[in-house]
Amino acid sequence: MTRFWVLKILRTVLTLWFVVTFVFVVLRTSGDPVVALVGADATPEEVEQFRQLWRLDDPLWIQYFRYVVQMATGQFGISYRDGREVIDIIAERIPWTLILGLFSYIGAILIGVPAGIIAAIKRGSAFDNLIMATAVFGFALPNFFLGILMILLFSLSLQWLPSSGTGTVWHLIMPAITLATFTAGTLARFTRSAMLEVLDKLYIRAAAAKGVGYWKRIIFHALPNASIPLVTIIGLNLGELIGGAIVVETVFAWPGVGRLLVTAVSSRDLAVVQGLVLIMAVTMVLANLVVDLLYGLLDPRIRVQN
Amino acid sequence: MFTRREVGSLILGAGALSMVGSLPKANAADRPSLNIAVDNLWANMATINGISTTSRRIFPNFYDNLVDRDYIKDENGLIFAPKLATKWEQNGTVWKFTLREGVKFHDGTEMTAEDAVFTLSPERLWGAKPFEPRGKTFTAGFKRVEATGKYTFEIETERPDPNIPSKLTGYIGFVVPKKYYMEVGVDAFGQKPIGTGPYKVTTFRSGEIMVLEAFDDYWDGPPPVKQISWKIVPEFAARMAGLVSKEFDFIVNIPTDQEAALEKYQGVTLKRVLADNYPAFAFNTRPDPEDNPLVDPNLRYAMVQAIDMNAIVQALFNGTTEHPAVPFNFKEYGKFYDPNLPVKLPYDVAAAKALVAKTKYKGEKLIWHITRQYYPNYEAAAEIMVEQWREIGVNVEAQILDNFELVYRRPYHMMNMSMSSDFIPGDPYQPLWLDWGPTASRSTATWKTWDPSPKFLELGKKFDEATDFEERKKAYLALSEEWQRITPGYYMWKSVYNCAHRAGIQFKFKPNGEMRIYGDYFKFV
Amino acid sequence: MKRVSPILVFAIVILAIAVVVAIIGNVFTSHGMSQQNLLARLKPPAFMTGSNPSFPLGTDRIGRDMVARVIAGLQMSLSVAIAGTIIGAVFGSAIGFIAAHFRGWVEEVLMMLVDFQASLPFILITLTLLAFFGNSMTLFIILMGLFGWEKYARLSRGVVLSAINQPYAKAIVALGAGNGRLYLKHVLPNVASALIVQVTLTFPQIILLETSLSFLGLGIQAPQTSLGQILGDGRDYLSTAWWISVWPGLVIFLVTLSMSIVGDWLRDRLDPMLRARTT
Amino acid sequence: MSNERLSIEHLNVPLPPGADRTFAVEDLSLSVSKGEILCIVGESGSGKSLTALATMGLLPRNLGRPTGKVMFEGKDLLTLDEATRRDITGRRIAMIFQEPTAALNPIFRVGEQVSETFRIHTSLSQAEIRKKVIDLFREVQLPNPEQIYHSYPHQLSGGQCQRVMIATALALDPSVLIADEPTTALDVTTQAQILKLMLELRARHDTGIIFITHDFGVVAEIADRVAVMQTGRLVEIGTRDEILNHPKADYTRRLLAAVPTLTPRKEREGLGSPVLIARNIVKTFARSGLFGGGRTVKAVDDVDITIRRGETLGLVGESGSGKSTLAQCVIRLVQPESGDILISGGDFAGLNGKALREARRKVQIVFQDPYTALDPRQKVGDSIAEGPFIHGLDRKAAMARALDLLEACGLDRASATRFPHEFSGGQRQRICIARALAVEPELLIADESVSALDVSVQAQVLKLLADMQERLGFGILFITHDLRVASQICDNIAVMRNGRIVERGDPASLFGAPKETYTKELLAAVPGKGWQHHADKNEAGTERSREETP
């Protein structure tokens, strides 16, 4: 048991180290970081000054070592765009992405999972087809397009919902729906196939032989078993959610990290980009760790070892 | 309908609310607030480092100029009115300015000649290592800036310069507080700027929002609006929906094709001004890259003659602006403007083809660097022009890049740019000499696209020194002719700025894009 | 089992049409995809008033024929998606095969790489790399090709592991077959169906990714065009000239939908094969 | 009959359209009485399991509604509404399944799963239920009932799981118990225990038991009456003695003739020089991975075996004894840690790369499951020809050899162009044998090669192996858990347990006078050992069964 966790944590740390190294390599190979940071207009003296300031004249491995230490301690540097600590800039955006992300994530789960379950137990019915068609619709529509359509309908024509920005829960509705649509579609499809697989198992038949009622079989026997792979996919979907947030936050002028990334990338604000990449990676890796934890809790075959 | 916001604001946690701005002050409670949806905010709000279309529209709300251009009394803004300076007089190479007394910066300190002098000082603008190096362009010829009293100061120039007051109507005329500026440094100042304007900056997050709050100690009396939030809303659809549904009081940057549709909504007023500014592109006339075919002027002539810019402008702007047939012959130059000036390189595909035939050009790819979504309609025009050049056998690839740093990265054969024409109002000094002369970034920067010809330099010097109108006009025409002989660039159209606001607001949009939310420019009705 | 559902027929027909149009599309219009007609800007499609009969689907903001645009966009989007899918599938599957064959530390390292990739949202990587290295078609294709490789790697490792533990694979080893014969002739055809299902999942995802990137301005660059680019370009015109983005949007939607339907069908048919995979 | 508990009358279970026959079960009538064990016996596809499922109302949804009657306590189960029927199943009629580990929900403690039956059908308190469950566990002779109560299925052995299932089934003292091949997945010793348990329970509770099996040994052990089924129809029904010793139907007779019995034989004369000498084979399984370590299991522990030309060496033992690992070590599908392997006098253990691949020709293997042993996407002709082709024969000659072998193995030459899924299990196993023999090996390993086959087919395949050995003279390492089969065909038998060979000898002496307790236990557990059928004098498998038509 302990070994299981030690391994998981070791893997997590290694993954993060990979990410840091990846960012370092990208920064060093994409061009002279000094030129990127001070601009092509800078005089040679300025460049030299900057090089010394950031100690970019050290051997690469020293720079690398220093870099890993800095990243590990959250020193992402100063934004070249507005001169503030990157960690502060990101910190003020995170709550917004969390609000949006959680809201749409929970919404997606609440819609996608039950829809998938119903589709599975009504397999082949018109209902199943309808749900699956809707699910495919959910992820076949580019989310920025869906977002703009919603703005035009709900803000411009009907004037029911605010068009963009933040302020009230009403502001949250359209971006959350846009973001949740994709995830809900994926979840519904996956839940369906996970349920179908479990429903075929002998223990479900054995439960029926015991006289367990239909819905009881579904809810108490099939669902807990189907939830094991489901938890994994829900965890993996967090990444897609973050990816989707990049676009959705831009459409709805939502001041989260996704939009920050877009602005930082387009202004080549290296320090912010690397900070964001690392923070998102940490989030994802931690989410995966939580998934593993849940997995262990749900599945006694992992939890209890002889 | 009306309950949803009330309910909504009750439900959303206080935590999220407090991040938008500080709580309202009781004494300002009776004044309304404004929400303005903008397409973008510049990262830095220092007066010179922060020069951009997106910052200029906000600047006059928290900075004051020394001298003001009065667009209320004069359509073209050619009347110079006192603002922070109340009086000015020229004596040979020296200009004496008297400052308004009792003007306060937002931090409560009084503005004095020390601040004005610092604002124009070599250490800030034109010395060896100035804080805001772009200031050099605007202070050419400055020799000495010195306080002569608490409220008086002098500017001495190398040669007599009749245009100093008009130069102070621009970016360099925004007075900054010396003490605070020196304390925090230019970068931090750009993030938390302080001026003497009617509003003070309370929140500035460049990727997101800028909040201005009424500065009730403003020398001209309290401003009409309690709080102005400039929020970035990148999508036009969201800006438009927000204006129509009255979430926003103002929106800016409306695509030309959408103006008509927007105007159809009730209570929406569209404002459009022609700005003293021209999107353009520069030909890279230098042999860098080595095989640059554009070093041959015939190819440049051909390319100019292949462009049907009038049709493009008509298509893209619906006749709201126009293409200057002869460069630098701009209508805003009053007496300098001559509608009958001959067009040297008119639209003529046959002539263009003939010119291409005279060159060694063999269809090599010419790279045109363009900044993404920077000048309205620029990319669309570029797409059209690329096709028109294809007609005459010139192969141009328009590369849309995210920012100017990428645009400035060689190799390129052409690059986008824009040229303001208002540094000295009513005089072609800026576009012709300042922007192309020997100190211009276009001829000095690492990414420079041309080396001014000796003749251009010689004619330019003559033009720079000419103070008498007739003499100056003659010099200007000669200089312009030399420029056209070389044709290192192409002026496309006069910029159009637009914005729209809700009903219940009376608003005068300044032609340079400034959105002044005070005085005679803005009223609630 | 023999009965094929009408939905599936619909999906296959749509895909077939898409491919045919992409290949011979140019016969459907006499206009070039970048041929402009400034006098015929923003013309509505044929069934609306004010339309121009030579532009059945209308024109865009600089008077280009939407039929030609959408076809060119379809060609590009399909090519990118096909190239990307092939690269990703081949690369990812190769990694999976290698991991499954060598086991041990090779497998650990490769799977760690997979974890690493899975820990970063792909669009994040794409944005970063495109912004830093500049946008080029080559990089773009490579990036699209990298998309989903980790899914192929995971999947193929799993199915290969289970396949090479199947008695038939052991029997073939026992016959004295080399690794090449084992993997290429026997294992690959047997895991291919699982990989093909994954292809039907990745393919629409690449189209959508390209669309998102176009929206952010990092996708296919003009004068080339893609469905995503047309869609993104037309978004400001949705309330006045909806046809600019609705046509490409519709095509994206139909292709994605059809691909998913076909994928689902394959998945259902090949279910036992997928179930055999281990994690 | 007043004692009748459950009677099935004219039951029909339709198959979906397009199947090879219209009804899975057709016009079936039988009944079970109080305290009676009725064995339904038949080969795969005979419809015996579907009969059970139809009775329980658990038929898969793709099958149509069953017709006929299933009478229980005066009610027709087929026409009852779902709720009433559910009340009967589980409380009055219980069922246990072939795969006990799969029949238990993996994420719940077994105690809870047994308790569920009480929770559904009774209003007992939690504490009372718990006590009852523990009592049940005791009754089905589970060790440590308290601990088992809190265990998860994966922590229990297959036999323990089946005991838990039986406990669940018996929870409410059902009137009828349906057991669908409950011992098939278990080892012989465990099977013997479970069978014993069933007999005890029948005696104690007077339950009527329908026991579905394919194994006549099991039938001989426990049946009161026997029903024989074939392709959905009842062939005959009668008492154990009637069916086993005096069958009326031809089909029953054929089946019985094919059933292997414990008839130990002597080592054959004239065996040649050794084709396999394996010495000191050791294989330890450890947890692999970057962060290795963990527990290790000695799967094969210092084993020596020798096989001569023409000899069949049987390797018997229960699951997990290391038989298959040893075989895979010998053929080097698994790398032994140490030990020498000589094949036809040549070193095999030390070979690598090309040399190894070439040497592989000399030793071939036939696996247990014919359904997974053939590449599903390769035509069978190509499958068989592949070996010779790899070893240098040109494509044409290889195919010619493949066709000859197909014929030799009793298959049509034309079948070479078909795919494996078009063949029955027995035919596939013949193809596997043909594939193995195509490279003319010196040694053939048959790893439980006949275990998954129906008895009639099993007999044919065994005969095929014997014939081919006769003709080609290779040695066979015959791995099986079935002592009856081993006793009939092996020259020598090695008994394996926990990775070691505990006893060896020729079948006659080994089974006649076993020395080791373990060997004795194994022998004692052989089902139906007391019964020797004399129904038919025919040689096993001379007649081709209908099962063999594709």
What does this structure look like?
The complex is a heterotetramer of chains A (306), B (525), C (279) and D (550). Chain A is mainly alpha-helical and 306 residues long. Chain A has 13 helices and no strands. Helices cover 79% and strands 0% of the residues of chain A. With 525 residues, chain B is α+β, with helices and mostly antiparallel strands. Chain B has a 7-stranded mixed β-sheet with strand order 8-9-10-1-11-18-12, with helices on one face. Chain B has a 5-stranded mixed β-sheet with strand order 15-14-16-13-17. Chain B is globular and about 70 Å long. Chain D is 36% helix and 24% strand. In chain D, strand 14 (338-343) and strand 15 (346-347) form a beta hairpin. In chain D, helix 4 runs parallel beside helix 7, helix 8 crosses helix 20 (517-525) and helix 14 (380-390) crosses helix 15. The radius of gyration of chain D is 25 Å and the shape is globular. Residues 288-293 and 535-550 of chain D have low confidence and may be disordered. Chains in contact: A-B, A-C, A-D, B-C, C-D. The interface between A and B is large, with 43 and 49 residues.
What would a concise description of this structure say?
Chain C is an all-alpha fold and 279 residues long. Chain C has 11 helices and no strands.
What portion of residues of chain C belong to β-strands? under 5%
- Strand order within the widest sheet of chain D? 6-7-8-3-9-10
Amount of helix of chain C: 55-70%
Largest interface: A-B, 43 and 49 residues
Measured between the Cα atoms of the first and last residue of chain D, the distance is: 42 Å
Q: Which residues of chain D form runs of ≥5 with pLDDT under 50? A: 288-293, 535-550
Distance between the ends of chain C: 30 Å
- Helix/strand/pairing category of chain D: alpha/beta
Largest sheet of chain D: 6 strands, mixed
Q: Describe the sheet with the most strands of chain C.
A: none
Beta-strand portion of chain D reads 15-25%
List SSEs of chain C in N-to-C order.
HHHHHHHHHHH
Nearest-integer average pLDDT of chain C: 84
Mean pLDDT of chain D: 87
* Shape, principal axes of CA atoms of chain D: globular
Number of DSSP E strands of chain D:
20
Q: Helical percent range of chain D?
A: 25-40%
Outline the low-pLDDT stretches of chain C: 272-279
